[in-house]
TrEMBL record:
Keywords: Cell wall biogenesis/degradation, Hydrolase. This is N-acetylmuramoyl-L-alanine amidase. It holds the Pfam family Amidase_2. Its EC number is 3.5.1.28. InterPro entries: Amidase/PGRP_sf, Amidase_domain, NAMLAA_amidase_2. The keyword Hydrolase applies. The lineage of its organism: Bacteria, Bacillati, Bacillota, Bacilli, Bacillales. It comes from Mesobacillus jeotgali. It comes from the Bacteria.
Amino acid sequence: MRGKLVKLGILLVLILSGCSDRVQEEAVARAEVEKPRIATEIEIPVTKDFIPNMNFVPRSNIPTHIVLHFISNAANNTENPYVYEDVRNIFIDYDVSPHYMIDRDGEIYFLLPESRAARHAGKGNMEGYPEFEDHLNKYSIGIELMAIGTEEEMQQIMSPEHYRKIPAEHIGYTKAQYQALNLLIDDILARNKMIKRDRNHIIGHDEYAPERKTDPGSLFEWEKIMFDRD
């Protein structure tokens, strides 16, 4: 009788041991499944409002850069230059678009899928990137911020007299925009691993096309972007 009990005890140990192994394996497998996934979709609140002309070129190149711009309707409305519909219509009228636009209150508008090569950079070049010459759209994600630069930076589209009619609170950028921009950059980088959070990969339009463009301009505070620290 005692021998049977010993054998039964050994069998029970083996069974429990096997169950323990299976439980452990299942736990490991479950942990693998529950690992943080690589983001493929926007994870922050945005207002999706795609530009109606979707004949933009499907992107075949992996994005490596973010390009920042400013835009307003100040040329037509100095008192209220940031009406969303008015600014959006500028893109439609000129058949251009960024991927995103951030208004004065920090609301992010999603205007074009990142899978499309948005028309936002135009002609230009960058040192060290010969393939970018006149083709940065293929390699970049464009972000417009509703803002107005200095009188000198705006002289391409308005006279000094017109500029001086713009209320001071409309000049430059807002705290809410910098906060939203940092969130948006984080979100973009989670999906686009070739873009690094540094000044080599996040640039201004004026750096790519200095002879044509002045945005985001001298009023944009680059130090308010949370760049990686080496």
